[in-house]
Amino acid sequence: MKMFKTLATAVALCAAVVVQARPLEEIQKSGTIILGSEGQYAPFNFFKGKQLTGYEIEVAEAVVKKMGLKYEWKTVGFDALLTGLAQDRWDLVIASHAITDERSKAVTFTLPHYCSGGIIVSMKPEVAKAADLNGKVVAVQTGTTYLDAVKKVPGVKDVKNFPTDEAARNALASKRVDAWVTDRFVAKEMLAKAPKAGFRTGDMLFVEQVASAVSKGNQGLADAWNKALKEAIADGTVGKISQKYFQEDVTCK
Ligand code: LYS
């Protein structure tokens, strides 16, 4: 009896730990793909009232339509999104994650849906280049490639982490930091929306390709997504969405 109980506990533990990502066939059978995003990163993914929207939200919805599926969105903090794939909380994450070697160890990336990079934003003309960050305090969102990049800039006095990109921006606006590093298109949109706020963009620190991610090795799903994404780029659907949000084409050329 005791042995049986131990065995039963072991089986239950295994079942709890080994969560299997849903393969494409299973998603197709259910008819609905579960998508994960952040919802706090305008103009890529954000809430307009109760409605989740933005460049990559609209791109995802167009891609899913081409895949012949319905979608259901889940939103959580940026930091929890990729781990949620391994826990099978959603089938695919689209939340402005750049393709990096580190992340590629844990997840499988699809083809990129935009090409961009990290840019320096400050309120002083003398803080514009990487070298200008020497002795300065810089704000970034936790878990981002901006954090990794700023850590590598020699002489930075302090890197302050914030749970959202908006909180990092607010730290700059209230002059608690000297600079903020964010995505170049996020900065572009912000400057266009608030030209008198006193923000200025400086140099780009690095470039990156941004893609969605599926659970590590869920290749069937990645392939189906890639095929539909290619079609959506080729037929101009993605280009139209890009023009709407950025007045330019942000796809990778
Ligand atoms: N593209 C950056 C990265 O891959 C930032 C994404 C930030 C989303 N709020 O980490």
TrEMBL record:
Arranged from A to Z, the UniProt key words for this protein are: Signal
Please list which residues make up the signal peptide.
1-21
Q: Where in the cell is it found?
A: Cell envelope
Under the cellular component aspect of Gene Ontology, which terms does the record hold? cell envelope
Pfam families registered for this protein in UniProt: SBP_bac_3
Keyword Transmembrane recorded? no
Recorded hits in PANTHER family, A to Z, give: AMINO-ACID-BINDING PROTEIN YXEM-RELATED, MEMBRANE-BOUND LYTIC MUREIN TRANSGLYCOSYLASE F
User: Which family does this protein fall into?
Assistant: Belongs to the bacterial solute-binding protein 3 family.
By what name is this protein known? Amino acid ABC transporter substrate-binding protein (PAAT family)
User: Taxonomically, what lineage is the organism?
Assistant: Bacteria, Pseudomonadati, Pseudomonadota, Betaproteobacteria, Burkholderiales
